[in-house]
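Field reference: sequence -> structure
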Amino acid sequence: MATVLWIDDDPAILELHGTLLRSKGYEVFTAPDGLSGIAIIRQRHIDVVVLDINMPGMDGDQVADVLKTERPTLPVVIWSAGPEEIPESFKWFADALLYKGDGPLPLLFAIDKILKDSRRRNFLLRE
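Structure field:
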């Protein structure tokens, strides 16, 4: 079962999308802030991270800096309110850029594609 970590300061988003992803067979961990998300990444095997940008305390940009250092191959989906809030550095770092108004289908498609690509890459590396 693939694991998804969703880092977002909006509890309604965490609950709604966590429920959606669980209904599709994913094991889902949620974190209400960047520090909690980093702690989960350090303690558990995570296959993909969905990361909000604007959060109090440690924002998405700071979380991304930690991920680039500690888990540079961990796939990341940036989840933002709109293109104007995405820093330029995220545009090359993220495996997918999604906007909160897009709805659940692009999210499910992006996570599924990222996980398939990751499995294919891992398979080729073992050969």
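Note: The chain has a mean pLDDT of 88.
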